[in-house]
Amino acid sequence: MANFDPSKQRRGLVAIDGAMALIVVLLIVQIWLLSATLETFLAGHTRAVLPAAIFSGLVFSGCLALNFFVTRVDQESRKP
Amino acid sequence: MPLFRNPSKEPLWKDEFSVFTSDERYVTRRQFTKFLTLASLGMFVGNLWILLKSRFTKALAFPTVEIAETNEIPVRGVKLFTYPTPQDHCILIRTGEEEYVAYSQKCTHLSCAVYYSAKNDRLECPCHQGFFSVKDGSVLQGPPPRPLPQIALERDGTKLVAIAVKGS
Lengths: 80, 168
Known about the structure:
CATH superfamily of the largest domain in chain B: Rieske [2Fe-2S] iron-sulphur domain
Largest sheet of chain A: none
CATH topology of the largest domain in chain B: Rieske Iron-sulfur Protein
Oligomer: heterodimer
Number of domains of chain A: 1
Shape of chain B: elongated
Number of helices of chain A: 2
Strand order of the largest sheet of chain B: 1-10-9-4-3-2
Shape of chain A: rod-shaped
CATH architecture of the largest domain in chain B: 3-layer Sandwich
Helix content of chain A: over 70%
Number of helices of chain B: 3
Number of domains of chain B: 2
Largest interface: A-B, 35 and 25 residues
CATH class of the largest domain in chain B: Mainly Beta
Mean pLDDT of chain B: 87
Structural class of chain A: mainly alpha
Order of helices and strands of chain B: HHHEEEEEEEEEE
Order of helices and strands of chain A: HH
């Protein structure tokens, strides 16, 4: 069994927890954005639809980047 | 793997079938992050769907329907009609000598039928006390989130004709 560096693992865990918290916040923003866009669309207003889709795409990109970050940190912290 | 088992430990079947329920239910942070990212993708797809729907949905072609004669209802009087389909109930209000407005009768909150209150000069929903302006259908008070869809009217001689639904 490989010897893990405990301090490295602890730092990795903190980084992963922080990234996860950020993803949760982004997801809440995205849920709100989707419901607000749907509401305005059903009310017959389509002006906000395109900016909302772009912003939602950006938020998703952020989540994806954080996901890659979590994977990388996790792999690095597992290295002996 | 030890060559000989210690008989005081777990039963043999547990050693040979080494999949544990607790392990199966264990979700790592990486898996959870993946799940959250997938949820984010779902939200993005939802927004894209709304965008595509708004771009490629053709504007509805509304029929032209005669709904009333101009002298049929008195000032501050109302007439109920259906437009554009027989299931869509609407209300026509004569607000002045030559002024007519018409709205969908369906409250934008929970679809109760709104009625015209001549005393307060507003449209009222009796279910949850939602009030709408008779001028433009905007929400004056209460829980309705949107204005009432307005029916576009035209005059054809002495007849009032519904030609479209605005803000539906």
